[in-house]
């Protein structure tokens, strides 16, 4: 079927000097950086939900964005038309990956069985589209938050019937992700949280969430899905207290339920900000615990306290985040997923193009700057020098008891001299090179 993106030329790298707004100025997919092609570092991903489902409706008003593939009387035909539009956009942007929720790709049916069948049938259609285009699936996930049945949670719901419904939904979404060769399977705890303890058994809900995740991990091994399960932390919205608050909280949760070797994280810039962190903090925490998985690349608005999911356009900020990714050894199965949506007044199909082209170039420019910082080595040298005392061994070295350290400190009577943290000097290196 013809879609608004069918006839668009494919966006290409034209270099920094080009005046063509629909060309890449920094994203040269074949450029070798740090020993790998840029496209292999970034693993750019377009997400289905914001680009093909979201229509600009908000709590105050009706849809504004024209999505020609939505509507009609046959929801399965509409789902196929949506897939055609999606793969036309992937081709026009020349991105290697995409991502989806089950409900983005296929409609809810009249029964659970019909809903699951719809997911599988459209999954087969997507397999054909992948085959024809070469575009791959970065991750699939299940939408366990939009329908009213999930209002009090999915795995954490007080009603075991909802737990069971959610299990069936995730099983099918994971089956389809597996069949499509998905590199990861993501779980964002949409409604897993609470508004008030007056009606919530917090311990029971956490146990239910731990059990649900264990069941998913067992099933993943059973079917031979080799990618990681990724939890996506978010501190609030929709609920006031989301259980998957941030990277550190999720690690504690995984450890408690013995899942830290099977589950990693999908971190999102705007979620980090809502948790009172920077994106780079969340990446560094995940790396410290060995659970860095993938990234949802977007930004919030400093004047707004909610998840605005805007396309990234802050190069200095993203440079710091991607520097942490490089330090962590890069994303292996993960990628940079544009979990970002157009503003409500950006209503033309080509707004979607401009948003992604700019977002991709921002990621590329930030990555190239981060790679330069990494190769330049100034930050690493500084860090090494700052902790050099530990390399010299000494009385506080590994293995010493508290008494030994205490006695040595007292005998030596050295009053350690404060040394500059050199923050401004280092910030200048980042900003000015
Ligand atoms: C919600 C969010 C989700 C997840 C997938 O804030 O980020 O779109 O990425 O469920
Ligand atoms: Co996200």
Structure explained in plain terms:
With 433 residues, this protein is an alpha/beta fold. The protein has two domains: 345 residues, Divalent-metal-dependent TIM barrel enzymes (TIM Barrel, Alpha-Beta Barrel); 38 residues, no CATH class. It contains 16 helices and twelve strands. The strands form three sheets. The chain has an eight-stranded parallel barrel, surrounded by five helices. A two-stranded antiparallel ribbon has the order 1-2. Strand 11, helix 11 and strand 12 form a beta-alpha-beta unit. It is globular and about 85 Å long. The termini are far apart. The structure holds D-xylulose and cobalt (II) ion.
For the structure shown, list the relevant keywords:
2 domains, alpha/beta, binds cobalt (II) ion, binds D-xylulose, two-stranded antiparallel sheet, TIM Barrel, single chain, 16 helices, 8-stranded parallel beta barrel, 433 residues, 11% strand
């Amino acid at each position: 079927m013809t879609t608004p993106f069918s006839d668009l030329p494919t966006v290409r790298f034209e270099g920094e000097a080009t005046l063509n707004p629909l060309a890449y100025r920094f994203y040269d997919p074949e450029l070798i950086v740090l020993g790998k092609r840029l496209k292999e570092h970034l693993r750019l991903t377009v997400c289905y939900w914001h680009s093909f489902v979201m229509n600009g409706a908000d709590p105050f008003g009706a849809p504004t964005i024209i999505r020609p593939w939505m509507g009609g009387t046959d929801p399965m035909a509409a789902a196929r038309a949506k897939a055609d539009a999606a793969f036309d956009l992937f081709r026009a942007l020349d991105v290697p990956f995409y991502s989806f929720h089950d409900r983005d790709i296929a409609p809810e049916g009249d029964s659970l069985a019909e809903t699951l069948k719809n997911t599988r049938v459209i999954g087969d259609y997507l397999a054909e589209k992948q085959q024809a285009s070469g575009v791959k699936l970065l991750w699939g996930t299940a939408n366990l938050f939009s329908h009213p049945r999930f209002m009090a949670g999915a795995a954490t719901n007080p009603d075991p019937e909802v737990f069971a419904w959610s299990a069936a939904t995730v099983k099918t979404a994971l089956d389809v992700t597996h069949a499509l060769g998905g590199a990861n399977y993501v779980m964002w705890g949409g409604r897993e949280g609470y508004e008030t303890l007056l009606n919530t058994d917090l311990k029971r809900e956490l146990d239910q969430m731990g059990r649900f995740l264990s069941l998913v991990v067992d099933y993943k091994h059973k079917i031979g899905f080799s990618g990681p399960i990724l939890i996506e932390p978010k501190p609030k919205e929709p609920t006031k207290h989301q259980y998957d608050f941030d990277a550190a909280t999720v690690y504690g949760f995984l450890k408690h339920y013995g899942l830290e070797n099977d589950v990693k994280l999908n971190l999102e810039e705007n979620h980090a900000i809502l948790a009172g962190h920077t994106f780079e903090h969340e990446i560094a925490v995940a790396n410290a615990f060995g659970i860095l998985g993938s990234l949802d690349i977007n930004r919030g608005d400093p004047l707004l306290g909610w998840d605005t999911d805007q396309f990234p356009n802050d190069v200095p900020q993203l440079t710091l985040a991607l520097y942490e990714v490089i330090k962590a050894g890069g994303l292996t199965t993960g990628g940079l997923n544009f979990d970002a949506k157009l503003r409500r007044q950006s209503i033309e199909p080509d707004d979607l193009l401009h948003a992604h082209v700019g977002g991709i170039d921002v990621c590329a420019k930030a990555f190239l700057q981060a790679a330069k910082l990494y190769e330049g080595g100034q930050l690493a040298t500084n860090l090494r020098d700052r902790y050099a005392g530990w390399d010299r061994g000494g009385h506080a070295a590994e293995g010493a008891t508290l008494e030994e350290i205490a006695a040595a400190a007292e005998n030596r009577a050295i009053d350690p001299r404060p040394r500059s943290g050199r923050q401004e000097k280092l910030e200048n290196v980042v900003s000015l090179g």
